[in-house]
Amino acid sequence: MLEVKGVKTYYLTDEGQVKAVDGVSFAMERGETLGLAGESGCGKTTLALTITRLLPRNARVISGEIYFDGVEILSLDEEEFRKIRWKDISIIFQEAMNALNPVRRVGDQIVEAILLHENVAREEAVDRVMNALEMVGIDRERFWHYPHEFSGGMRQRALIAMALVCNPKLVIADEPVTALDVMVRAQVLKLIKELQSKMDLSMILITHDLSVIAETCDRVAIMYAGKIVEIGDVISIFKDPKHPYTKGLVKAFPSIYGPRELPASISGTPPDLLNPPSGCRFHPRCPHVMDICKVEEPEMKRINGKQYVACHLY
Ligand code: SF4
Question: What residue spans define the domains of the chain?
Fold first, then answer.
């Protein structure tokens, strides 16, 4: 359903080009949930904005192709892509308070998403939005309320309703639960899972929190410094991670069953994407670094079944 091939998206700044997404490739099947994980600044959100073509003005897609249902969407003109955005591919933004307009009623903002993409009467759109609010556990009458009258969890649910109201095939959820407290977060994750199976949705779930991926995804792609370094089914990656960075991420996650000890951290800091390290971008932080890692970029190799890794150790 979705195939991303060698996509590079750079930001043009006064200091130079920030290589936020630098040669990313993956494919997704219909009904699948793919988790996209990595530290802040590794390019996850830029990749989401590239697929939805909502990049800021100073960003450029330098190369690559994105096929959605067989159609290359990066080469469509804006008018053609508008028919796809929201109707076929929608996005749940992070920071629900910032994503909603504070001076407009929540219901009206969701109605607008329908009216922009479908030729329906306003009354029908209002009814559909009230149904969508109910579907995400919000009372229909809340349609008439403003964002400040919603709690954080309700605002996030409203954004989920907005993303689903046109029955898209693919939803990209960008850190959908990061700003929520732990109880509300569990409820919203449960809701996402239920809606996904009920509507047979494909989903890309972006998060830096591996527990969210473990609970909701079929496969996971680990991003580091603008590249996917490992991709595979969730169980293989959690039980037997191959890339040293993935191993570090999994170790940094506290176990609720094992002995109570401080989780390990990955030494060093993420690289500056204006001047990323040569060869393997993880080499300055990697405990297994070899000479070849500093000069040659590792290719993605299949390790077993559906697990692929880009590392010279394999
Ligand atoms: Fe470490 Fe080398 Fe593998 Fe990069 S390629 S993760 S530096 S062993």
Answer: 2-88+168-310
pLDDT in tens, 34-52: 999 988 889 999 999 999 9
Minimum mean pLDDT range among 89-103, 112-126, 149-163? 89-103
* 3 state SS of 202: strand
Instruction: Report the CATH number of the 2-88+168-310 domain.
Output: 3.40.50.300
Q: CB of 238 within 8 A of CB of 211?
A: no
Pocket test for ligand 1, best of 289, 291, 297, 300 (most atoms within 8 A of CB): 289
Q: Give yes or no for residue 288 CB within 6 A of ligand 1.
A: yes
Residue with CA at minimum distance from ligand 1 atom 7? 283
pLDDT tens profile 157-177: 898 889 888 889 999 998 887
Q: In sequence order, what are the residues at sequence separation of 6 or more whose Cβ sits closer than 8 angstroms to the Cβ of residue 133?
A: 107, 110, 139, 140, 142, 143, 157, 158, 161
